[in-house]
Amino acid sequence: MHKTAFINYIKYEKHYSSYTIRSYKNDLQQYCAFCEKNYKDFDPLSANHKIIRKWIIFLMENNLSSRSIGRKLSTLKTFYKFLIREKIIENNPLDKVISPKIVKKLPSFVEKSKMDLLLDNVEFTNDYKGNRDKLIITTFYLTGIRLSELINLKINDIDYQMLTIKVLGKRNKERLIPFNRNFLKTLNDFKIVRKQYIDQLESNIDNNYDNEFFFLTQKGKKMYPKSVYRIVNKYLAIVTTNEKKSPHVLRHTFATHMLNNGADLNAIKELLGHANLSATQIYTHNTFEKLKKSYKQAHPRA
Question: Is 49 a catalytic residue?
Answer without folding.
Answer: no
